[in-house]
UniProtKB/TrEMBL annotation:
<dbReference type="InterPro" id="IPR050177">
    <property type="entry name" value="Lipid_A_modif_metabolic_enz"/>
</dbReference>
<dbReference type="InterPro" id="IPR001509">
    <property type="entry name" value="Epimerase_deHydtase"/>
</dbReference>
<protein>
    <submittedName>
        <fullName>Nucleoside-diphosphate-sugar epimerase</fullName>
    </submittedName>
</protein>
<feature type="domain" description="NAD-dependent epimerase/dehydratase">
    <location>
        <begin position="3"/>
        <end position="206"/>
    </location>
</feature>
<dbReference type="InterPro" id="IPR036291">
    <property type="entry name" value="NAD(P)-bd_dom_sf"/>
</dbReference>
<dbReference type="Pfam" id="PF01370">
    <property type="entry name" value="Epimerase"/>
</dbReference>
Length: 297
């Protein structure tokens, strides 16, 4: 099968290119330009991973998100509609729907994104959903939660570095639940969508189980064969410290505290029912693999 892959140089793209051995992959590195007309050469499906998410240096402007995630997706989707390709897989994000989740996030939730990232992904989703699809063409909007795997430099890697250095985790008094997504499960879903005849639609993607950040710290320590170092500092004291951190530039501030202790559970029921298959790897096994890959890199 001939597929066109955008964002192939990124974390998910590198893993997906390795996973889809046996497919004829053409990579396409795109950046938004006004009035750009994208030409799609002979291709059966497009997997659109390219986008703007991380801003580690905090230098991005709002329009960077709208151009990379909305305008460029629109240009590529228009090219898909005019081409012979039959499938378009757009990697959106759960953040297109919600920045915080109190119960479990399903596809029925009314989208209410708060960040430029989430809003720009949602605008791209809306554009795709609003276009008429001719017979035989299908679109899939995938909404992954936090993806992890080899080569990932995100928050999981930071937590790994802390545990490896023997730095105690001071937030063990907080009990949260959050979903993760092993890049292997993401690649599996994409491959199944390419190979099976699944109805067009919007699908959340997450591993089966959720973990608390404290359980994650324990899993990292167990994988590193270290004793976990957990501090049960009372939550009100931590909250006060984090508020002080907002003004005094301490390592912990309200934003970091929220990221580490928030609940964010995502249902994967719809995609599993559509595929008629379970995901290949459990949350804990996927996390162990990722942690081992950090050890090897
Ligand atoms: N990582 C996560 O936890 C997560 C969670 C939910 C959704 N997602 C989504 O999944 C996709 C892949 O994520 P990732 O973690 O692999 O991201 P990544 O490592 O940042 O890679 C994204 C790729 O997009 C291309 N790109 C970079 N800046 C761009 C811009 N301004 N305009 C257009 N393309 C640009 C680059 O590929 P080329 O140089 O090859 O063009 C880059 O390697 C993204 O759309 C992201 O929003 C990620």
């Amino acid at each position: 099968m001939n597929i066109t892959l955008t964002g192939s140089s990124g974390f998910a793209g590198t893993n997906l290119s390795n996973y889809l051995k046996g497919f004829d992959i053409q990579t396409l590195s795109l950046r938004y330009q006004p009035n750009q007309k994208i030409q799609l050469a002979h291709t059966e499906a497009i997997v659109h991973l390219a986008g703007k998410a991380h801003d580690l240096k905090n230098v991005s402007q709002p329009e960077d998100y709208y151009q990379a995630n909305f305008e460029l997706t629109k240009q590529l989707y228009d090219a898909f509609l005019k081409s012979d390709a039959t499938k378009f897989i757009f990697i959106s994000s759960v953040k297109a729907v919600a920045d915080g989740v109190s119960g479990t996030l399903t596809e029925d939730e009314k989208p209410n994104p708060q960040t430029h990232y989430g809003k720009s992904k949602r605008m791209a989703e809306e554009y795709i959903q609003a276009q008429h699809l001719s017979e035989g063409k299908k679109y899939y909007i995938l909404r992954p939660c936090m993806i992890h795997g080899p080569g990932n430099k995100g928050n999981l890697n930071l937590l790994y570095q802390l545990v490896k250095k023997g730095i105690p985790y001071p937030l063990a008094a907080f009990d949260n639940r959050r979903s993760f997504l092993s890049v292997e499960n993401l690649c599996f879903v994409i491959k199944e969508l390419l190979e099976q005849d699944i109805p067009s639609g919007t699908y959340n993607i997450a591993d089966d189980d959720s973990l608390s950040t404290t359980e994650l710290v324990m899993l990292i320590a167990e994988t590193l064969q270290q004793k976990p170092r957990l501090w049960n500092i009372p939550a009100p004291l931590i909250n006060t410290l984090a508020k002080a951190g907002d003004y005094l530039k301490l390592p912990l501030n309200s934003e970091k505290l929220q990221k580490l202790t928030e609940n964010y559970c995502v249902s994967n029921q719809k995609i599993k029912e559509a595929l008629g298959k379970d995901l290949p790897i459990t949350a804990r096994d996927g996390l162990r693999r990722t942690i081992r890959s950090f050890e090897e890199s």
